[in-house]
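step: validate -> pass
step: tokenize input -> pass
step: predict -> running
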Amino acid sequence: MGGGSANGSSESLPLDTDGSADENSECLPLDIAAAESLLSSVNSDSEITLRREGDKSFEEFTRECPSIQSITPSLPYRNRRKRVRKKLLLNYQQTESRVELLKEAKFQLLNYRPGAWIEEVGGLRRTDYEIPKITTLLLVGPRSSGKSSLVNKISRVLEDGWFSVDRAQISDASSPGQGTYFLHEYTIPKESTSFCIYDTRSLSTSSEENFKVLKDWMINGVQHGQKITRSSDDKLTKNAIKLKARHAHSCHSLKRMVNFVIFVVDACSVLKSMVNNDTACLNFFSSTFNYPFLSFKDDKPAIVVTHGDELLPSDRAEVCSFLGDLLGIPPEQIFDIPDESDAMMELAVTNLLFFCLDRADRNLPVKRKSLLFKDFKFLLITVVLLLLLASLITQIARCPSPWASFFLGRHTVQPSANSISVEWSQIRHLWYSD
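step: predict -> pass
step: emit ->
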């Protein structure tokens, strides 16, 4: 998670009343040295806020707006918020020391192979799992949440190509016919077989449509170049998709099963919903995120918070804390990725990838033939033992021994009707001579 809160003169981009950023304002990154000095001088229990004159933090909004207090728990929420803020400040403080670990972290990610991080538990071995040729991560999120921008950030971190062209097309999704309408596969790094990221179309305002598409992706897999259409698309959007689909080649690409999901949200949109007490929007986030098909056993998707640089650090921490309470996940599962290309962004991206790839390997399905083979082997051993037991009983029945008499319930051996009886006293003279 990136972000934090501090007192100081560093500036941040405020929000207008409509939730958008003020373009005339200058956004400056938080000064790490200032954060370090503030951290050592400010009591951890005190409320820390970074603002310019006239700016208001979310805490001030909650005091002035009674409606927002209805969605804000009292003491537990405040304690959680303080812990998250402190952790964010510590992240700023420890940035320089953690940068030295980036090289090792990148090396491990670049050498990752599907199934390499499997935990052999429950008597299962690595060979018992269905290991994919490439691990697939799926990006899901509302309109303008920053999914395509996240693809470019991840690609740059692991390819060290800050001057290379963005791989994912970024467009103005607010314009008709613009945005992502086809599934795009991006191998990380290029031409790699370790893992790939799928950029998808933004979520619809209809939960029913979203659930239908998400269920299809999670059950049947995703395919590069696959067209994404909805029944709610207007005529202009449908025509635009139809024209763009003339170069689609999804029929020639392989289908890949999704191994883990990354849910991307815009920090500014979340904060706006919190301030305006937009319960409909917040319920939409919660219901989509908690859709059962997006989870793998007990592991829910990872949350990526984007555009946090445009908020006050205190509000940035507030958004992350609120999302954790709303979605029922710990702060460690929420990754605040800055827009600026700096060490904090690289650290956040590497932490995100480590988390997602670990969860993907942990939840790989077990081979069906492996289970069937184990069941067949058990059945075969049982049949062989029964045959041996039957053969042993048969041999005992045919053998006129004391043991056979014991097992078969016979205590004496009766002579048969055709047996010859000999009187030895009458024929003993044959052995004596006159």
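step: describe -> The two ends are 123 Å apart (CA to CA).
step: cleanup -> pass
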